[in-house]
Design brief:
alpha/beta; Aminopeptidase; Glucose Oxidase, domain 1; 2 domains; eight-stranded mixed β-sheet; lysosome; hydrolase
Length: 465
């Protein structure tokens, strides 16, 4: 009851928003995005002229220079680069694999090295293979059945979960920690079923970690396509003595310098209250990173452009941040939060787009109950644009390090059913992004930023006070 009364007092002390004014501003944002959007053109260049932007690569640096130049052209109050040291992992020559059902009888298998993996021996690695459904199966089998073999992790994403991100979370541990855990039992290498709900021949890469495994005991790790995994599993059931061969040439180098790309519009009334909108500029190297996360970057850039083009003058400082190294280190997000804290900057809101450029459905919010209730009260403003979903939950990896009791963190939630068809794979490319869906996402983000700027977050300190 006390919280309800305090919230009522806070809302009563703020002039009640004019529904018609907000409707007009939000319609202007959507109209501008759908008739004069810039996101698709920016993404075309990032994807087709630059390509995959793995941290520490030449392409990542080209993306930094391109996006900074584009932000400079928008007439923002300030644009700058924030230095950050990032890991440099290189895939090397294309991977090669086959299964051998009997001497001389082989079938090629589509694989790719997992990000951060060590290479196989120069001549490749060939051994018998043992299939498991997850890390927990290793202990059941024991060292006697694993040592000297290749471990094949074959737990699929759960197709019964409507949230594909929940399905992803349910099996991604075998990709991230599978090699470190299998090495403890004497495995020579690991092959991991791709995090993909579709049956196809695209292996999906992604980050993995050896934890505290000594360098001399680290074993190579690769992803296998879903079709490949199904064929390998079926063949193993028929002939448990088959051998598997794979060769990869990846290498980890010393860290190199890269940058977060930042641009801002200075607030007219509360310039010391900072609002962030962003995505991660790096991507994996197999495709061109259009959905993950070129889409989020260009949408975030267009948020500032749309606000300027519709004539809105922000009360608070609004920043676009294109974070570097989300995929294999989160260095950019951590660096941004570290610098913000060292400067005692007051961040009140952050919105991230890192779930693909598909049709927007709503927002996931990490905030107090009072701020969640305020944002839900704006739901009717979004419903004409088919934005219905406002839930409490995860916001985004890059803005997560900024979390504190007062800040409101938000993540754009697009329709996720097709996302993992492309995630970290060779087919994450520009032709799979729909222009209109991308623009609707940018408009939805700009509309939430507008409302948060106009009415402000409710500080937890005031509620408790």
């Amino acid at each position: 009851m006390r919280k309800v009364l305090l919230l009522a007092l806070l809302l009563a002390s703020t002039p009640f928003f004019s529904q018609s004014d907000d409707e007009k501003q939000i319609k202007a944002i959507y109209d501008k995005a759908l008739t004069d959007g810039q996101a698709y053109e920016w993404l075309n260049y990032l994807s087709n002229q630059i390509g995959g932007r793995l941290s520490g690569s030449v392409q990542a640096q080209q993306a930094v220079e391109y996006t900074k130049g584009q932000l400079d052209s928008l007439g923002l109050d300030r644009v700058w680069l924030q230095p950050v040291m990032v890991p440099k992992w290189v895939r090397g020559l294309p991977e090669f694999a086959y299964m051998e059902t009997k001497p001389g009888l082989t079938t090629n298998m589509p694989i790719c090295a997992l990000g951060g993996s060590v290479a196989t021996p120069d001549g490749g690695l060939k051994a018998n293979i043992v299939e498991v459904q997850g890390i927990e199966d290793l202990q059941k089998l024991g060292k006697d059945k694993i040592a000297g073999k290749i471990v094949f992790y074959n737990r699929p994403m759960d197709p019964t979960l409507i949230s594909t991100f929940a399905s992803y979370s349910g099996c991604v541990d075998q990709r991230y920690s599978g090699a470190a855990e299998a090495a403890k039992y004497g495995a020579l290498g690991v092959i991991v079923r791709s995090m993909n709900l579709r049956s196809d021949d695209y292996p999906h890469t992604g980050s993995m970690s050896y934890g505290d495994t000594p360098v001399s005991q680290r074993i190579p790790a690769a992803a296998i396509s879903t079709n490949g995994a199904d064929l390998l599993s079926t063949t193993l059931k028929l002939n448990p003595n088959i051998k598997f061969y794979f060769k990869q040439n990846c290498k980890q180098y010393e860290d190199v310098q890269s940058y977060n790309v930042i641009g801002e519009i200075k607030g007219s009334t509360y310039p010391n209250e900072v609002m962030v909108v962003g995505g991660h500029l790096d991507s994996w190297d197999l495709g061109d990173g259009s959905h993950d996360d070129g889409a989020g970057c260009v949408q975030s850039m267009d948020v500032l452009r749309l606000l300027k083009k519709t004539g809105y003058k922000p009360k608070r400082t609004i920043r676009v941040v294109l974070f570097m190294n989300e995929e294999n280190g989160l260095r950019g997000g951590n660096k941004y939060a570290e610098v913000a804290q060292s400067k005692n900057e007051n961040h009140v809101f952050a919105l991230e787009s890192d779930s693909g450029g598909f049709t927007p459905r709503g927002f996931s919010l990490d905030c107090s109950d009072e701020n969640f209730d305020q944002i839900q009260s704006w739901k009717s403003l979004f419903e004409p644009y088919l934005i219905h979903l406002f839930v409490k939950g995860y916001s985004g990896a890059d803005i997560g390090p900024m979390k504190n009791p007062d800040i409101v963190l938000a993540g754009l939630v697009p329709d996720s059913q097709r996302y993992f068809d492309h995630h970290h794979a060779e087919n994450d490319t520009f032709e799979h992004v729909n222009k209109r869906e991308l623009e609707l996402g940018a408009a939805s983000m700009a509309s939430l930023v507008y409302l948060m700027d106009k009415y402000g977050a409710i500080p937890t300190s005031k509620i408790k006070g």
